[in-house]
Design a protein that fits this description.
By secondary structure, this protein is mainly α. The protein has a domain of 69 residues: Orthogonal Bundle (434 Repressor (Amino-terminal Domain)), CATH 1.10.260. It is built from six helices and two strands. 6% of the residues are buried.
Amino acid sequence: MTITERLQKYMVHRNLNANKMTVDAGLSVGLIGRAIKKGSGLNSETIEKILLTYTDLNPEWFVSGNGEMIRTNRQTINSNGSTNSVNSNINGNISGNINISHSEFSGMIELQKGCQAHQAELAGRLRASQDQLTECMKQVTLVLELLKK
């Protein structure tokens, strides 16, 4: 199924027509209708505007066809960790509210914990390597002193 076919399926689900979606998402007049008629793809800016407008639309399903069409169990977060909406600009590309599912949020937490554990392990290895290097330098200095005598 192409992205325009998935878009049509979503439009049927939400009882939307191409004109309503175009206006709601702030797209160029006729853009959705032409894409559906021609069976053409959508550019990233169009996809972004649709996803920002229709927050129940699952981005993964919309873009790739994987997962469910409609998001379930949505949760919004903000930068201080509370469960409010995010209103920030990510890499200069997205602004406005970002909704993520509970499972996506849990996955992010687990990923962060894994990164922290890996970082702690690497810091420990670095300290051990520095200690070994210091000991080697002491031995080299000692050998040089012995050679000078």
